[in-house]
Amino acid sequence: MSTILNPTRIIPAAFLVGIGVGTALLMLPLARAGEGSAPFVVALFTATSAFCVTGLTVVDTATYWSGTGHAIILLLCQLGGLGIMTGATLLGLLVTGRNRLSARILQRAEMRSLDMGDVGGVVRVVVILTVAVEGVLAAVLSLNFLLRDGLAPLDALWNGMFHAVSAWNNAGFALGAVATPGMARDGVLLACLMVGVLLGGFGFPVLHELRQEWQTPARWSIHTKLTLAGSAILLLLGWLVTLIAEWSNPETLGPAAPGWKMVEALFHSVMTRSGGFATMDMTALHDETQALSWGLMLIGGGSASTAGGIKVTTFFLLGFVALAEVRGQGDANIFRRRIAPDVQRQALLIALLAVGTVSLAVFVLLMLTEIPVEYVVFDSISAFATVGLSTGAAAALPPEGQVVMALLMYVGRVGIITAAAAVALRRGKPQYRFPEERPIIG
What we know:
Elements: H1 7-26, H2 40-51, H3 61-64, H4 67-82, H5 84-96, H6 101-110, H7 119-147, H8 153-168, H9 187-202, H10 204-213, H11 222-246, H12 258-275, H13 287-299, H14 312-326, E1 333-334, E2 337-338, H15 341-368, H16 373-384, H17 393-396, H18 399-425
Antiparallel strand pairs: 1-2
């Protein structure tokens, strides 16, 4: 395999190019609402957050950036959500005229339930799903902004389109029409944002399979079953814990009516899966809610989705592996299917890399700031898992700390894909094996 064309290097490089271009564009004077141009670190952080569809910000998106700046952010979110991998694979086809094995393996690693040889089909599915979902959400949101909030028609249309793209891509960026306290009492807005985040977080393979096999659940792949079942469990868990823990909290759900308490708790549970929108102050959450939010953010959404994290399939697959070990079973079985050992090793690798990366980032950031450790941990997990929820720690960090946070967003977005692809590409039987020995464990 050519070192230059190795897809495990193309993806990180493509993301770096996208972030670099986005940074340059956001540093233009016309991208900022005020005088002068945005500082380099602010532009870099925002471009990284947008292209990695995270949603963390160090400035107020609605007031700091001009209409041009908002358009640049929207474009970066859209390109990041569609995926540099799909574009790079298609570009490779256009240049070489054939589908290279390395590109096909990488595409398979990110979009497992689609035909890994049909790159054109993958692109069509991605584009059609994106346009269809964003179009419907934009139409509903625009009407809501027009009729409920009284925005001018063009402003309503722009806000509807911006937040539809942000929701579908799990980006979490919001403009003035959404970033207001009144958002918590707008049922249409909250519903649209939750639908967009959930659909985008399921992943293209799951949505593609549901479109084809929605009447025959028994024929769904293990990936689809695990993603849907796991997402439902985590969503219900997050909703119940948030509702119970925050029910009487005067700074979060306490003042709301019972019905709105249930809606806002559900909204928080959905957004911790990588959505990034918020109706509550993250610093006002009780400790148990914050701790659960850490876990939900780190797990994230489905594979090949616009969500981040280690992915639902990774988390629950490791759970079944642990259950098999506890029962003394030789194989890990899910829905009457045996999981291959190499897939188990990939899942373990991804989980360990995630925990190690976040831990290292927290350690470095704590040396650069006196912000409470729980806030640093919250924002670090949010950055790595490309969630976008924040306690304000990211904005309060010194410039060097914000660069670390931007690097964490980049690694969280491309590192998981690259690590999984690298393992898949290097599969093969060794020519020899060393003698076996069993060290003491535990």
